[in-house]
Specification:
Helix content: 10-25%
CATH class: Mainly Beta
Radius of gyration: 20 Å
Distance between the termini: 64 Å
Structural class: alpha+beta
CATH superfamily: Cyanovirin-N
Number of helices: 3
Largest sheet: 3 strands, antiparallel
C-alpha cells in the first residue's frame, strides 16, 4: 500500500521536475540543418562526421574526420587538439590552447561515441584519461572547429 502525504507529493513533484532532460536533436532537426552549424546551433562533429581518428606527431595530436557540409558533401578536415584540450593533473579537460600533447600520448577513439582515450601525466606517472570530444568540437559546414580554431 502506498501512502501519499503532502510531503511525499512535494518530493515526487520535485523529483519529476529534476528529471526533465532537454531532448536531443531529432533526425528532422539534423536533416533541416544538414548536420552543420546553422543559426547558431552547433552539432557535435560526432553527429555529422564519419571515419574520425586521432594521430600524434611529436606533441601535436590531430583529430581527422570527413564531415557533412551544406552542399551534401563530406570533405576531409583535421584540427590540432592542442587548441582544444588541456591536461589537468592527469585528466583531459576542454580548454582553449591547452597544449595537452606535451604531457599526453597514445590517443585513440574507441566505440561509436567520440570519446578520446589516452594516457596523461599526473605529475608523477601517466594515467588513463578520457574525454568526450563531441562536447566541444563542432562541425561548421564540413570544417572541424573548437574555441574559434578551424581545421584545414
Amino acid at each position: 500500500m502506498l501512502f501519499v502525504t503532502p510531503f511525499t507529493m512535494g518530493f515526487l513533484t520535485l523529483f519529476a521536475v529534476a528529471c526533465v532532460v532537454r531532448a536531443a536533436p531529432t533526425i528532422q532537426d539534423y536533416q533541416d540543418t544538414g548536420g552543420v552549424i546553422m543559426n547558431g546551433t552547433a552539432y557535435s562533429f560526432g553527429d555529422s562526421c564519419n571515419t574520425y581518428s586521432a594521430y600524434q606527431s611529436g606533441t601535436d595530436i590531430v583529430l581527422s574526420a570527413s564531415c557533412h557540409n551544406k552542399s551534401g558533401g563530406f570533405p576531409y578536415s583535421s584540427i590540432n587538439l592542442n587548441h582544444c584540450i588541456t591536461n589537468n593533473m592527469g585528466q583531459m579537460e576542454a580548454r582553449k590552447d591547452g597544449n595537452f600533447g606535451l604531457s599526453c600520448n597514445r590517443m585513440l577513439f574507441h566505440g561509436a561515441q567520440p570519446i578520446l582515450y589516452g594516457f596523461c601525466s599526473n605529475g608523477k606517472y601517466p594515467q588513463e584519461a578520457a574525454i568526450d570530444v563531441g562536447d566541444f568540437v563542432d562541425n561548421d559546414d564540413g570544417r572541424l572547429n573548437c574555441f574559434g580554431y578551424y581545421g584545414e
